[in-house]
Amino acid sequence: MTDVLTPPAPEAAPKPPRSPWRDVWDQFRSHRGALAGLVIFTLFLLAAAVGPYIWRVDPTFITIRARNLGPSWTYPLGTDQLGRDMLARMIAGGRISIAVGLTAMALSLVLGTLVGMLAGFFRRLDGPLMRLTDLFLSLPLLPLLLVMVMLFRESLSQRFGPETGIFILIVFAIGITSWMQTARIVRGDVLALKEREFVLAARSIGTPPGRIITRHLLPNVMSPIMVSATLGIANAIITESALSFLGLGFPPDFPTWGRLLFDAVDYIRDYPSRVIWPGVAISLVVLSANYIGDGLRDALDPRIRGR
Amino acid sequence: MLTYTLRRLLLSIPTLIFISLVIFLLLELAPGDPLADQPLTIPPEVRERMRAALGLGEPVYVRYWKWLVQFFWVEPRVMLDAWLGTAMAVGEQRIISWQFRAPVFDVIWQRLPQTLWVVGMAYIIGVLIALPIGIISAYRQYSWFDQIGTFVAMIGFSVPTFFTGVLLIVIFAVNLGWFPSIYDTTLRVTDWPSFVRQVQQMAMPVAVLALYNAAQISRYMRASMLDNLNQDYVRTARAKGMTEPVVVLLHVLRNSMIPVVTVIALGVPSIFGGAIITEQVFKVNGLGQALIGAIYANDLPMVQTLAFIFAILIVLFNLVADVLYGLLDPRIRYD
């Protein structure tokens, strides 16, 4: 995101040339919600990344005498029904939830970009790939996700161990059920881009299709991909916590925010705060990701930028 | 238009058959054994006979074919029998749920009213809230109303329904005690007090889902109104001396409703299936909960049939949305 990508703007001759990313950042900054979202999201990322090294309490350590405690200096967020420290569990849960969100988003972006690029660039693949996309869009996704998790949970956790196995399963399941929007957007953009002169020029000097895609098309569809990346994180985190909430996500020893919420619902009458913390965390992360996406969409749209 | 509709209908048949195959084959991989809960003292040959009685003895393609026949040929006739009082399908094999030992469709008919009442009501209320909010937000763009509306909509689709639901339970059921936290399906509305109780128990699930639906639809409504408010025909209408309500509510609204109507149509399948989580939170025993229960209980026929019904609804309402778009907008003709 530095000056490497800078084509100098011709009309800005008197002033020093501005990089397009600088313009994007200026526009992004003027969107107050997006800025707040960026700050909150970074804070959560930091807390999840560095938290365990600062708050060195084992999230699975059971202190059976210290059950159901309220907030105190030893336990800032209290303890759960087995006397495990809620703050440590929240941090551990955040690590898993955010990791699932990021990896699932990456998988769905790669899949979606690949399918969209192939469908847009190669006319012969367009029909079949788009029918495939329509097919995936008409599958009932949440039931299918539940069924997939139910079917493959046992075999995968036997092969890779309970945590890695279920992580792979959930990331994979979310990834292959959420790539369709990206594919459609990328295909539409590629269809329009490949008729432009610079692609014709590249073709006429004999650039092979693979290089046209990576060198000329991919950089030009980056902005919609970035927007769907942020929205994809939000979607993946919500889906993961929904699965955990329905009891079909991670096993109880590996807290995620959805799992913590699910476990706390049984004690909702007496200890409502244990429901609130993970719920607020999920909501804040998703809200900030959505706001970042909103701001990015405005910032990357050249028709809005500079107005 | 008619040829287009017919062509799409014909095209949706292979799509649906393919989806049914995917669902069926995926569930074939299921590791669970439907006889796992039977006592171990049952001799092996009896166990084999029980498996055969559940229809498990035969190869995959035979079972798939049987399931298709039961779904598309036997069950519709059973339904007709029930409505018309005829006896076309007496004694034919229906899709049997392993969990309830009863026909799957009987369970679905029992569960459908709760789902339709709660989730359908939430959808209608959500649409009714979303439309005026979207219209005013667009008309007064960047006003305080628009800012608040945008924020609430953002919250509406960022905060997951399982959290809003639980939050409402904490506030209104636990602390204030206004509403019951569990939906009572056995309640019959006969007089005024029972009607009040029905309204009370529907209030929270309907509110949760309505907020979620309203958030999405109001965004579409706002965007669509904004697209239209800057068009030339709006200036013409104002220049002709039309009053502002006529311009906005007749000219602009009618044109901006075109994409919104299709979005509303696309959301209808979620009325039947998408409210799985909300039904789980408030213990409404509707279709979503039937699906979750069937997944936990390894009840494959039930899961297959429900998932396939959801798929049919999605395909059908996609078609309805496309046809509606063509009907409402004369600029779009598919043929």
What does this structure look like?
The complex is a heterodimer of chains A (307) and B (335). Chain A has 307 residues and is mainly alpha-helical. Chain A has one domain (22-299): MetI-like (MetI-like fold). Chain A has twelve helices and no strands. The radius of gyration of chain A is 23 Å and the shape is globular. Chain A starts with 19 loop residues before the first helix and ends in a 7-residue tail after the last helix. In chain A, 41% of the residues are buried. The mean pLDDT of chain A is 80. Chain B is mainly α and 335 residues long. Chain B has a domain at 104-328: MetI-like (MetI-like fold), CATH 1.10.3720.10. In chain B, 75% of the residues lie in helices and 1% in strands. In chain B, a hairpin with a 4-residue loop joins β1 (96-97) and β2. Chain B is globular and about 85 Å long. The model of chain B has no long low-confidence stretch (mean pLDDT 81). The interface between A and B is large, with 41 and 43 residues.
Which labels suit this protein?
heterodimer, A: 307 residues, mainly alpha, MetI-like fold, 12 helices, B: 335 residues, two-stranded antiparallel ribbon, globular
Fraction in beta strands of chain B: under 5%
Q: Supply the number of structural domains of chain A.
A: 1
The biggest beta sheet of chain B, please?
Answer: 2 strands, antiparallel
Distance between the termini of chain A: 22 Å
Round the mean pLDDT of chain A to the nearest integer and report it: 80
Name of the CATH architecture of the domain at 104-328 in chain B: Orthogonal Bundle
Shape of chain B: globular
- Kindly state the percentage of residues in helix of chain A: over 70%
**DSSP strand count of chain B:** 2
**How is the main sheet of chain A built?**
none
C-alpha geometry of chain A: globular
Low-confidence stretches of chain B: none
In angstroms, what separates the terminal alpha carbons of chain B?
7 Å
